[in-house]
Predict the structure.
Amino acid sequence: MNISEKIRKHRQEKGMTIAELAVKVRIGRGSMKAIEDNKRSPDVQTLLMISTALDIPASEFLELDFSQKKQKKESTNNGSERKKHEEALAKASALIYFY
């Protein structure tokens, strides 16, 4: 499940509309819709605001589910994609820690 799918899932579980979440995150409805439609990636600050608005830990968005990890591992022979993912996760975790 990617970030967009996780945002949509948690938003719907909270019974919120895209417009309501956008107001809480302080971005436009179109921007929020683009994030949920996986047409735009949220920056770290926006992701933190989304996690706060949805009352979930920001780390929820940084975790891949087991099937995605397995697919990633099978699709890369040299592990370079995995290394890139791990580096990005470490950077994002550091930013979240210091936020």
